[in-house]
């Protein structure tokens, strides 16, 4: 079995489509979002954060109060896979907690926090 001569092989420049923000799917058609509709993501609501040592953490008991870095009444962050996508406020609907979205984070701001 012989190997082809690399000098005689045809060479062609690779063709790539537009990768800009307005780039459509294949062939200028709209992207088919049905391909990702069943992808599971983690949704989390962040009330606030606190930093403490392991010693302080182990000393917590029922009834202990942990001070968070947010003010009472301040909006919650809505995180998808750890990235803030929106802000909102807690509501009660049919005796269950929920969140009313008050602000959607812009794509530019999302990318800044993703780094």
Structural commentary:
The structure is a single chain. Helix content is 11%, strand content 25%. The model has no long low-confidence stretch (mean pLDDT 82). Strands 1-2-3-4 form a 4-stranded antiparallel beta sheet. The radius of gyration is 25 Å and the shape is elongated. A hairpin with a 2-residue loop joins β3 (83-93) and β4. The chain has a domain at 42-115: Roll (Surface presentation of antigens (SPOA)). It is an alpha+beta fold and 115 residues long.
* Percent of sequence in beta strands: 25-35%
Q: Give me the oligomer status.
A: single chain
Return Rg in Å. 25 Å
CATH level-1 class of the domain at 42-115: Mainly Beta
Helix-strand makeup class: alpha+beta
Number of strands: 4
What is the CATH architecture assignment of the domain at 42-115? Answer: Roll
The N- to C-terminal Cα distance equals 51 Å
CATH level-3 fold name of the domain at 42-115: Surface presentation of antigens (SPOA)
Mean pLDDT: 82
* Shape category: elongated
Treating each run of at least 4 consecutive H or I residues as one helix, how many helices?
2
Q: What's the CATH superfamily of the domain at 42-115, by name? A: SpoA-like
Helix content: 10-25%
Record the strand order, biggest sheet: 1-2-3-4
What low-confidence regions span 5 or more consecutive residues with pLDDT below 50? none
Main sheet record: 4 strands, antiparallel
Order of helices and strands: EHEEEH
């Amino acid at each position: 079995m012989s190997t082809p001569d690399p000098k005689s092989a045809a060479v062609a420049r690779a063709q790539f489509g537009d990768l800009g923000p307005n780039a459509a799917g294949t062939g200028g058609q709209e992207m088919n979002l049905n391909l990702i509709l069943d992808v599971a993501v983690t949704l989390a609501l962040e009330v606030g954060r606190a930093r403490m040592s392991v010693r302080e953490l182990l000393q917590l008991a029922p009834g202990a109060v942990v001070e968070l870095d947010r003010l009472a009444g301040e909006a919650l962050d809505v995180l998808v896979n750890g990235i803030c996508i929106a802000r909102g406020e807690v509501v009660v609907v049919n005796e269950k907690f929920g969140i009313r979205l008050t602000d959607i984070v812009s794509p530019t701001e999302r990318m800044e926090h993703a780094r």
